Amino acid sequence: MTSAAFQSKFTANILQSWWIQSGGSRITSMGTPEVKERNLVHQTVEISGAIEGTTIPLLLKFTPGGKVDEVRVRTTPDKSYTIPHPSYDQPHSYQEREIVIGNATYPLPATLTVPKHKPGEKVPVVVLVHGSGPHDRDSTFMGTKIFRDLAAGLSSSGIAVLRYEKHSLEHGFKMSAEPATLDRDTTDDAIYAAKSAAQQEGIDPDNIFILGHSQGAGTMPRILSKAPSLLVRG
């Protein structure tokens, strides 16, 4: 079973195109499914399939209701090593909340890191916006987790941080069937994140900051111009 959103994108033409690109190859065997990740939006399962001698690691993302909602081929090695936390991380001084941002069609799992504070007190928040390409909420890259470490440092110093899975990572296949735009890739999700941050318990809605990396930084003027109702600064 597949989700309605997936069905609307995974057409017969796309399936035929995939088969032609593979040279009409046959699937000769399938491995045992292995759960790789769970978040509030998807459960990711990896199945290694052999197509006429070539092993292809296929990632399937399932909705909480058990329907296939995404599919992609893993193109990078499966790294199981642990990336250490920075020395300035003080986990006893903050709490992490798992939330969902975005819209009903493309919900995005996110983490809000909130410093421990007195009852009734509100703290400022920084929304982290990725660079180009599909990235997770930690901005994991070559043995680093830049956004995770930024969240740890800021939250250890009294500032909340909201970071989220990028649209092109969580819903990449469905996105590929739509026209590529900067708003779809970066701007809209940053605005969803800022709006969600403003509604969270313990967050000061008058002190929302947006911090962008690479493409996220270059998009900042557009993000701010499209969010006139929010008191945000970038």
Q: Can you give a write-up of this model?
A:
This protein is α+β, with helices and mostly antiparallel strands and 234 residues long. It has two domains: 4-73, no CATH class; 91-233, Alpha/Beta hydrolase fold, catalytic domain (Rossmann fold). The chain has eight helices and 13 strands. The chain has helices at residues 4-9, 12-21, 146-155, 167-170, 172-176, 182-198, 215-218, 220-225; strands at 27-30, 34-38, 43-51, 54-62, 68-73, 94-102, 107-115, 123-129, 140-141, 144-145, 160-164, 203-212, 232-233. It has a six-stranded mixed sheet. Strands 1, 2, 3, 4 and 5 form a five-stranded antiparallel sheet that branches. The protein has a two-stranded antiparallel ribbon with strand order 9-10. The radius of gyration is 19 Å and the shape is globular.
Quick structural gist:
The chain is of the alpha+beta class. The chain folds into 2 domains: 4-73, no CATH class; 91-233, Alpha/Beta hydrolase fold, catalytic domain (Rossmann fold, 3-Layer(aba) Sandwich). The protein is built from 8 helices and 13 strands.
